Amino acid sequence: MLSKAEFDAIPEHRWTAYEVTDDYIRSYAYIDINGTQVRAERTQYLADDLLVDANAEEYKQSEGKRWGDGRVVARIPLNKWYKEIVKGVREGDHDHLSWWLNRDENKPFRTFKGKI
User: Fold this and answer.
1) For 64-89, what is each residue's pLDDT tens digit?
2) Which of 31, 51, 53 minimizes the C-alpha distance to 40?
3) Residue 53 Cα distances to 3, 77, 105, 107, 110, angstroms
4) Could you tell me if residue 73 is inside a domain?
């Protein structure tokens, strides 16, 4: 199995789209693992870019604003929610969502500055 770093290192020109919708693009690439050709697949969610741009704008505008009840602090695409967050929440880890949102790599999903 490929690590995330190995998967991310597959050159863009190796990917071939096989399903394109208004919401996502599914692609595959053949890679060599120990002399065996293996098919890797990925799904790129097109709405993610729009969401990240909108989040970045709100994040900038939150400078100097105070925390309060009902404050929207993040918007997370459903694919990320189900893949990276829901398991921890279902297992009763009450701090999992805060931990996930406070990680630098997830800053694009934040709409408000500060630590959660």
Assistant:
1) 888 887 889 999 988 788 888 999 98
2) 31
3) 28, 13, 15, 12, 11
4) yes
